[in-house]
Design goal:
By secondary structure, the protein is α+β, with helices and mostly antiparallel strands. It has eleven helices and 27 strands. 27% of the residues lie in helices and 26% in strands. The strands form six sheets. Strands 1, 2, 7, 8, 9, 10, 19 and 20 form an eight-stranded mixed sheet that branches. A six-stranded antiparallel sheet has the order 15-16-17-11-18-21, with helices on both faces. A six-stranded mixed sheet has the order 23-22-25-24-26-27. Helix 1 packs parallel to helix 6, helix 2 crosses helix 6 and helix 6 packs antiparallel against helix 7. This is 2-polyprenyl-6-methoxyphenol hydroxylase.
Amino acid sequence: MFDVIVAGGGPTGLFLACELRLAGVRPLVLERRPEPDPADKAHGLAGQVVRLLDHRGLFERCGGRGAPAPAPGFFFGGLPLPLHTLGEENPMYLLPVNQRDLEQVLKERAAELGADVRRGREVLSFSQTDDRVDVVVRAPDGAETTLTARYLVGCDGARSLIRRQAGIAFPGVSDDSVVDRSALIGPSDRFRLVPGGRVVIDGLGEVPAHFHRTEKGVFTLLAHDPERPLVNTAEWEDAPAGDFPGTGAPMTLAEMEESVERVLGVRLPLAPPPEGAPTMLRRLCGRNSRLADRYRVGRVFLAGDAAHVSHGPTLNLALQDAANLAWKLAAALRGWAPEGLLDSYEAERRVSGERVLMHTQAASALLAPGADVTALRLLFAELLGSPENLHMVAALMAGADVRHDMGEERPAAPTGRFVPPIDLTTGDGHVRRLAELLRDARPLLLDLTGGDDLAATAEPWNDRVRRVTATADRAPAPAMLIRPDGYVAWAGADPDGLKAALTRWFSPA
């Protein structure tokens, strides 16, 4: 019997497997595709998920350099956000890694940790009892077998079989009026990028490279790789009903050219990427915003796109789902999960899902054509001139606006929030970043008090919680209890408060 069967071996399933292995759990990942999906999909991660990857030592493996730094700017609804003006209050981090490369990094990491990942295995059905889940699986040769685990997690995408068979509703809204087209193209002398995030296009002049809105639609040009820029259009038109995420005749480069011409009003000949480079031609007819009404039925859980879809940063959301769920499953499997711990997964992550769907729909509405939308954009741009409003929008997009209930009536400032970055001098005299102490995904008591009171309080939990003493020039609290998913479960210096938090999250000693 396996500890956990993970249905779906995309980024969410692989990251969940990594987190489970770090927690000492034996997961089995079952992926229907015999090989990784070569399609070019998401092109970056944004918000506190970037720091979560840094906690696991994956930031640099995904192309980052050194430690994550706040982004100087970003966009909301195509409106520029001058995040550099927020200074140290800037919550937005960016990591320009495409989904294909991220999946490769996670695949390699899962193998290093000894996760059992089996490709070409299609989950057909499952049934569960009070103490197990039986999963029927079809192998590449067509043979069907039944595998058993203590828990099953559906990371099998927007059309999730696990969600449907669990009887979990997937309510939401669909907007069939929007058609999004994307293509990776080759370099061209008809356009050139200039400083300030802008592009000069022959016959049109200089326009924003990101989110250039016209009354015909939206045009964007992303050039993380100058040899194969990504061009995207969004048009509000009659789309084929029921196409999710888009079917029908294959997308062509000529179709992309025609769409660009309709949006910009000028013809922009497009060439394919250089030979041997990844290609992508994608048409998405309609936009869906959906959120599972439950994330759990008995021993079956949902994570990633199986739980939520939107025209937005769902991969950011998905990886944080995995981090939240993994340590809680491990606690249940190892016998020290307090009552209600597994239920807290849905309670915490569904709130984040609601926030992402809300801001994604709002941002999409700000890009739609029409004089009324243009007026709304002018008003919204004025509101973003306030540092308070700018920070609110940035925190919303970063996922930093969510504060989990940690059971205290008057929690200290960092309690319930994702732990801030801190530079520490540990007891051995080494200067280290806090992220370096979180590589093993264990609960951590960071003690900056210099005394022994907290050590005596935490001693009965030493088998579950690691304690590190250190000093710091700047810290939000004298001590912090940090959960494996990066959230602060308690902060302060009161031993009684620490004992209550240890009991709440890691069971009585």
